[in-house]
Design brief:
By secondary structure, the chain is an alpha/beta fold. It folds into two domains: 92 residues, Winged helix-like DNA-binding domain superfamily/Winged helix DNA-binding domain (Arc Repressor Mutant, subunit A), CATH 1.10.10; 210 residues, Vaccinia Virus protein VP39 (Rossmann fold, 3-Layer(aba) Sandwich). Helices cover 49% and strands 18% of the residues. α10 packs parallel to α11. Bound molecules: S-adenosylmethionine.
Length: 325
């Protein structure tokens, strides 16, 4: 029963985020009639909606007044430092493709081609995607910075670095580090503004291009970070990227691959297995890999000291690192 109705919870939450209910309630607690009036909702439906959000612990109610609960206040109010509403809006946009999962299962083709959200074809959508990645990366990046000791390292290449958030956070932690973000041109154009806003324009450079172009990666690196990229690619492409990362690194250089990974066999954790399906809906080679396979690919490419670590819970990510001899 819980599985068959899990979308009730998603859609109640995502609709509240889309309507900016949490932004509205951040100003003042409001009763259902006032919320209905401000958001142009039917008043009876609005009361059911607000009560469901109380049930989900997103809102609290004091008499007739509804207010944001602690999680909503921390993560769902636009303009606050840990705002994740843009990242959740991305998930909201995938609701319809998930409803059509059967089509992607039959064809193997993504319901949402990457050109729709990573190019100039739809600049507003690409902007929203990159801002969503940035919001999420601000949270996850705090953990990455703690896991990845780059003391003494000076040059970082961030392959598929997206919004540049991880590069900026890592440069913030390590004063001698500079970074280059390699990503698609339309993504870099948005990321430049994000990095400048984080005060790191002097230390984070951009190399607009494709990591699939068959060319070498910019060389002379101390660290190559490949985060959130392998889930878009086949094992063949992942192996190719690992070998090109090895070529780009100086001896003693560090390769760090971060992603949502499964255990061997691909079925657990359940979130990671479902994430593989989500990636197939949005990228032609979208899938999920096992971290044990990535570790083996790195060892096969000549990396030593290969190590795998989970991000702190509840984050589903894992980090595989290796050192070029
Ligand atoms: C899920 S995001 C990961 C962003 C960031 N590294 C992170 O971990 O949050 C995947 C990134 O890969 C980039 N990407 C996809 N295909 C690419 C390609 N062929 N060349 C360069 N970047 C690509 C996307 O634009 C996107 O920024």
């Amino acid at each position: 029963m819980a599985l068959s109705t899990a979308y009730w919870e998603s859609q109640t939450f995502l609709t509240a985020n889309r309507l900016n209910l949490f932004g509205l309630l951040a100003e003042d607690p409001l009763d259902a009639a006032t919320v209905a009036e401000r958001l142009s909702l039917d008043s009876t439906a609005a009361r059911l909606f607000l009560n469901a959000l109380v049930g989900l612990d997103l809102l609290v109610r004091d008499g007739e007044a509804y207010a944001n609960g602690p999680a909503a206040a921390a993560f769902l109010v636009p303009g606050t430092p840990h705002y994740l509403g843009n990242a959740f809006r991305y998930a909201d946009g995938l609701y319809a493709p998930w409803a059509d999962l059967e089509k992607t299962l039959a064809s193997g083709d993504p319901a949402v081609p990457p050109a729709d959200y990573l190019t100039d074809a739809d600049p507003a959508r690409t902007h929203a995607f990159v801002m969503g990645m940035h919001g999420r990366a601000l949270g996850i990046g705090t953990a990455l910075v703690g896991l990845l000791d780059l003391t003494g390292r000076q040059r970082l290449l961030d392959v598929g670095g997206g919004p540049g958030t991880y590069s900026a956070l890592l440069c913030g932690r390590h004063p001698e580090l500079t970074a280059t973000v390699l990503d698609l041109p339309a993504v870099c154009a948005v990321a430049e503004g994000i990095v400048a806003g984080m005060g790191m324009a002097e230390r984070v450079a951009f190399a607009p291009g494709s990591y699939l172009d068959g060319l070498g990666l910019p060389d002379g690196q101390d660290v190559v970070l490949i985060s959130g990229v392998f889930h878009r690619e086949t094992p063949t492409t992942c192996n190719d990227l690992i070998r090109r990362a090895a070529d780009a690194l100086e001896p003693g250089g560090l390769l760090a691959v971060a992603d949502v990974f499964t255990d061997p066999g691909g079925a657990t954790p359940a979130f990671a297995a479902l994430f593989g399906l989500n990636m197939r809906l949005t990228a032609p080679d979208g899938q999920v890999h096992a971290d044990a396979d990535v570790a083996r690919w790195m060892a096969d490419a000549g990396f030593g000291q290969v190590d795998t670590r989970p991000f702190p819970p509840p984050m589903p990510h894992r980090l595989v690192t290796g050192v070029k001899p």
